[in-house]
Amino acid sequence: MEIKHFARKYLRENTLPTTFCPGCGLGIIINCFLKAVEQLGYEDLKKFIFCSGIGCAAWIPSPYFMADSIHTLHGRAVAVALGVKMMRPEHHVVVFGGDGDIAGIGIGHLIHAARKNLEIITIMVNNFTYAMTGGQVAPTTPLEIYTTTTPYGNYEPPLDVVEVVKAAGASFVARWTTYHVMQLIKTFKTALTKQGFSFIEVVSQCPTIYGRRLGFKSAFDMIKYFKENSVPVDKVGTAHSEQVKGKIVVGIFQDVSKPGYVSLYRKAVKKALGG
Amino acid sequence: MLKQLEWAGGEVRVQTGVHFWEGNVACAEGALAAGCNFFAGYPITPQSEIIVRLSERMPKVGGVCVQLEDELAAINAVIGAAWAGGKAMTATSGPGFSLMQEGIGYATMTETPCVVVNVQRLGPATGQATKCGQGDIMQARWGRHGDQVTIVLAPNSPQEMFDLTIDAFNLAEEYRVPVIVLSDEIVAHMREKVIVPPEDEIRIVNRRKPKDPNEPMFGGELIPPMAALGDGFNILVTGSTHDEYGYRYTADPVVHRRLVERLLNKIMQNAEKIKMVEAKNLEDADIGVISYGCTSRSVYEAMSHAERKGVKVGHIRLKTIYPLPEKEIKALSERVKKIIVPEMNFGQLCLEIERIACGNSQVIALNKVGGGLPITPHEILAKILKEIEV
Question: In degrees rounded to 5, what are phi and psi of residue B237?
Answer without folding.
Answer: -110, 130
